């Protein structure tokens, strides 16, 4: 690893690390921060998680990392001997280093060496040499019985071989998008973000109400997943702004017909009747507005509209390689309708902000916040699978890194159980 720099995060890193052909029974981790040998357990764990994908079980890597961080970003008063330090944007710096190491391992994974050993038959082990291993004692009140890195068989169909894909920011140089991305980082709720990025998904509670259960450490939380997915989708839209993948619509539907359906779905009569506007007039105004901005919509957010035929050719998808087919078709009419009155077409930053929010809302699973009939069990199962294995799986720190902002409602995540508290009540039962 040679001269990894990030001026925004204020750090520079270099080091050496073992390839997939080198392995040991114990991790060797050497870390220097500003030329001082320190312990950095979070970085060690982050890099070890990268190696778990390429090394056999029970084998560990050799890692040397030297970090140069701006002195005003470091807090050295966290350990009496200065053996540990804390610094700003730790998670972002660790992710950048882990991503760099992961990319290097991917490039070298085409050539692997596997060592074998012939079995020695006929060896007799004396009873005197048999040792009985005592069980390690632990406190069951604080035992975490789940691991957020574990995977289940039902999550495998969409996963291809190799290392997991990470969501990379697009190379967008627009100042307004840079400012919007910075606003997301500035509004971060550190506690809730840590819970979401290191959770274990438990299950869906109610699709119509948008409720699910997740576990973090020894706590169980009730989450309003609809609001959380909408916020995460907004962050994904900002990250991929200007380089969206798309899903084509065959045959291309009529733009005006979709806007008309969206007019009915949004109950727009309530708002337009006092203005003296008919449905046809509203549809015509929105259609003209979108047709006048076809190039911008195609270039920046991946909405392809044929201006000649007045049809919708393609729609954007935020997670194209991870089981998401793009905008929910149930929400597509509402999206096109809302692009008229809900988007600030006069100001660049305001336009991109509202565009990304409308795009995020259109990606939320269709049962939440709609009048959709959920009587089809197959549709319910597919939607629940998508919520768990597509959306929440990519909120983890090792994948998409969902940032929970401070402006979300306080009840978006409610602790409903704690293992130590349960033991206090039921320990004698």
Descriptive account of the structure:
With 429 residues, the chain is of the alpha+beta class. The chain contains 13 helices and 14 strands. The chain is globular. It has helices at 41-51, 90-108, 175-186, 190-197, 225-239, 255-265, 269-272, 279-291, 294-301, 332-338, 348-363, 377-391, 419-426, and strands spanning 4-6, 11-17, 28-33, 36-37, 62-69, 74-75, 86-87, 200-206, 211-216, 219-224, 245-248, 304-306, 311-317, 413-418. Helix 5 crosses helix 11 (348-363), helix 6 (255-265) packs across helix 8 and helix 6 (255-265) packs across helix 10 (332-338). The relative contact order is 0.12. The strands form four sheets. Strands 1-2-5-3-4 form a five-stranded mixed beta sheet, covered by helices on one side. It has a four-stranded antiparallel beta sheet with strand order 8-9-10-14. A hairpin with a 2-residue loop joins strand 3 and strand 4 (36-37). The termini are far apart.
Descriptive terms for the model:
5-stranded mixed beta sheet; alpha+beta; DNA damage; 429 residues; 16% strand; DNA_mismatch_S5_2-like; 4-stranded antiparallel beta sheet; 34% helix; globular
In short:
About 35% of the residues lie in helices and about 15% in strands. The chain has about 425 residues and is of the alpha+beta class.
Strand content: 15-25%
Write down the Rg.
Answer: 26 Å
The low-confidence runs, each spanning 5 or more residues with pLDDT under 50, are 159-164
Provide the residue-averaged pLDDT.
82
Number of helices: 13
Strand runs, count: 14
* SSE ordering: EEEEHEEEHHHEEEHEHHHHEEHHHEH
Class derived from helix and strand content: alpha+beta
Strands of the widest sheet, in order across it, are 1-2-5-3-4
What kind of sheet is the major sheet?
Answer: 5 strands, mixed
- Outline: globular
Can you give the helix content as a percent range? 25-40%
| C-alpha termini separation | 55 Å
Protein name: DNA mismatch repair protein Mlh1
GO cellular component, one term: MutLalpha complex
Pfam families: DNA_mis_repair, Mlh1_C
Keywords: DNA damage, DNA repair, Nucleus
